[in-house]
Amino acid sequence: MSDVIIKPAFISTLPDTGDTTKLGPTAWNAARLLSGGNPGEVVRRDPAAATGASWGSSPRKLAASGNTVVLPGTDTLWHPLFTTTVPAGALSTPGAVITIASWGMFTGATGTFQVTLELRLGSTRLYSITRGDGTNYGWWMDATIIAAAAANTQTVAVHFALMPEPSYNIYAKLQSGEDSAITQSLAINGSQEVAPSAPDGGIALNGGMVTLY
To answer: Which site among 30, 78, 103, 182 is 20 to 30 Å from 47 CA-CA?
Structure first.
């Protein structure tokens, strides 16, 4: 990334006299400095601001993947299928938002008894769904995490859909209590109740994206 440089529309070509008591061409031509704001914020037009502009947050991608990741069929441990880190302070301001979009398959792998997919922020499980042996469905999960007014409190809503089965689950968790002042892991994990299974552990994640607003 390169620095933003703001200079006056008119650039003086006169030589500097060296008189420090006057505004000379060198000082006039120098780049202007921006102040205020927080890392990651952008300048936006704001008629209500005294200067006509203010700092504000902009959507930014925290993580994205278009690769297929399958749950191993060799054990019954929890395995990350998609993971990223939420920066410290990202959810400290009330109204700050993180969205998660992800999709994949319950593969119906031979030998799986029950498989579970979960969404987890730090140590808090935000959502989970368990499917039985032989299930072969596509899945889609949308989740929204909003920083609440109370410190270190997040409101969470998850929309989970199975295709082609006409089953749509909307799950809302009114609060989670992860410390927003420190970095937190955000992960989609999978596990199976019985192992081994083949050719995989019964869950595949085909893609996902996490966006911070």
So the answer is: 30
